[in-house]
Structures are given as C-alpha cells and as structure tokens.
Amino acid sequence: DKVLMELIEPYELRAAKLREFLEDVKPSLRYDIVPLGDPYGPSVTDPDLQCLVVSEETRRGGEAVNKKRLENGLPELALYEILLMKDPDHSQNEEEKISSSSLRQRLLGTLLRPPRQDPALPSHPYVIGLTGGTGSGKTSIAKILGHLGAFLIDADKLGHAVYVPGGPAYEQVVAAFGAGILNEDETINRKVLGAKVFGNQERLKSLTDIVWPEMARMVKEQIGEAAAQG
C-alpha cells in the first residue's frame, strides 16, 4: 500500500545509500544489510538480536515481532523508540515526516529518462498516447499538454463521430446490428447498441472490427494534420 510504489528505488540503490550513510556516521561500525522478503525478516529468527529501533508509528510492528519471537522460542527484543524528523517543506498532500513517499510525490511530472530513440519512429510529430481508467487524470494531463502547444486528438470524440449518420462506420454498424438500434431521427442509439454487445464477446468483436479501423484511420489523418501545422 505504499504511495506510488512503481517509483520506489531499486533495492541495490537503497542499500548503497544506507551503506554510505553508515560509513559516514561511524566508519568502524560493523553492520549487515539484508533484503526483507517478508514483513519480519531476520528479526524473528536471529537469536543474537537484542534491540529493535522503532518509531511511534512502527511500534505496533515491533510488538508483533516480539510476539513472533516468543512463538519461535526466542527472547523478546528491547524496543527503542525514536522520534521521526519532520519535513518543514512538506506540501499539503505529503507526509509531515521526512519520507520516501513524499520524495516519490515530487518525482511526478519530472522526466526520469530521455524518450527512447527509435530510428523507425519519425521525429516529427512526436506522438504521446494517454490511457487510463475513468478519473485517472487523462483530461487534466491533456489540458496541460495543450497549453504547452500540443495538438490534441480526443479518441472519445472520434468514437462518437464514426457513428453519426454519414460517418465512416454508420452504414456498416446499421447493416450488422439492424434498424432496431436507430432513433427516430436515424441516429444510432448507443445505449441500445451497447445492450446488444454487452456480455457478448462475438457481437462486441463484430462492432470493434468495424469501428476501430475507422477510428485508427481518423487518428492518422489528424496526426497528419498536426504535422502539417508544425
């Protein structure tokens, strides 16, 4: 349940930073850094451990460790509680403490690596596809890109355009699904059409085989228009 877990640094990098910190604090210190494959790690199996450092928010985890140690026939660890450093510069949507979650929040909107150079892709126009579920922020990101000068192609609007009378998929869709999907004004009733294909993979494929190629063609036409506009 970590925030933005996709942006968590790799174990090797985290271990290297910890090693550098420990050596800076006290070069003579002996230590082992071990990856945790489960919530407990060696804390519930190592008989040589004597103390566990916790914070106010991880104290319950420390108590769970001691419970597990007793079950394993090991003595309880002394729990030494420390205060967490507060981050004076944290924003409203970040944690109050100094936190890697906040650092990941700040990574949003930054370029982690340069765009992949693929000789098979034309350098102009550069095409970005925005995908995601409802409420994932596609519209907001599109507006930001639009303000920066991007040419926007709204696939939802194209999806509606292919169905209108005279549209590229209109005749094929009516022929495939019958006049029963039409309103009185001859427009396609999308709710009636949706009910016909919902839960029926064969009918849904018939519809997408008609509509998607036409949408792809319209997208390519608009990309061409964007290129013409520079």
TrEMBL record:
Annotated GO MF terms: ATP binding; dephospho-CoA kinase activity
Record flagged with keyword Glycoprotein: no
Listed SUPFAM superfamilies: P-loop containing nucleoside triphosphate hydrolases
Protein name listed in UniProt: COASY synthase
Gene3D superfamilies documented for this protein: HUPs, P-loop containing nucleotide triphosphate hydrolases
Higher taxonomy: Eukaryota, Metazoa, Chordata, Craniata, Vertebrata
Signal peptide: none
A biological process term (GO) from this entry: coenzyme A biosynthetic process
Superkingdom assignment: Eukaryota
Keywords, comma-separated and alphabetical: ATP-binding, Nucleotide-binding
